[in-house]
Amino acid sequence: MIGNKHGRKKILIGEKAGCCFGVNRALKIAAQTRKNHSENVYTLGPLIHNPRVIQKLAGEGITPIESLDQAAPGGILIIRSHGVGPQLVAAARDKGLKIVDATCPFVKQEQNLAMGLLNQGYEVVVVGEASHAEVIAVVDSLSGQALVIAPDDLTPLAERKLSPRVGVVCQTTQSQEGLNRVVNALLPLVKELKIYNTICSATTQRQNEVLALAKTAQVLLVIGGKNSANTRHLAEIGSSLVPTYHIEDKNEIKPEWFRNIDTIGITAGASTPQEQIEEVVNWLEENLQEELEWTKEIK
Ligand code: SF4
What class is the 106-195 domain? Predict the structure, then answer.
């Protein structure tokens, strides 16, 4: 607790709210690259799933591109924390681009474990969203030799005969329940199942924390890009228990959300910088000041 004013409302801020190790690392690598090089700097897709940060980076000359054709030869391509497959790195080099690799080491480990499974003769299953960049990169790193299963759609398992030996890795931002669901569906279908639980602890910690916050607070604000899967997932967990609002910044806040509310919970996705969380807290402090009992509390 930082302040203690006489009043009624409390604000609880999740200790784990905001940028994870891999996103912070990618942002630092990007800033360092910009500082040390005068060439054009690109990222294939947004560096992180946070439109405000991407806009700021673009202003500094770090340009997101949708395909390598948009990059001028001689530029620098930053590989974002989700990683890419080796074919893409080779194509970028062929085009005359220099590579700066900001792949999160935990994602790299997931790719290496998947490759190890393939080399040991397992049919590889990746638990996750087929369209997510991290999953695409894992599948590409196996030259497409992997089956992607989303926890909320197990139909591909019924439609395909699997090898008797299956190895599993998991998109780092999936939930434990989702992984369990796929593993339980696989078990009766195979003779041998080897599972690497590659869910990142940053994900698990944030998901556990949002559950704890949602049990204590009567309304929850989840701050982060609407295009951020992990932020959306936090909002889904929160909204299963309390009214939850997924906002990108303070401009989306509506004062009526806090009427007849004692405790406001705040958390943020793994791609939300601390300053965006502080802006929201400052807005609440300014606009609810008459009613605030605690100006801040770290849960
Ligand atoms: S959530 Fe985990 S795996 Fe993903 S970028 Fe952050 S630290 Fe890396």
Answer: alpha beta
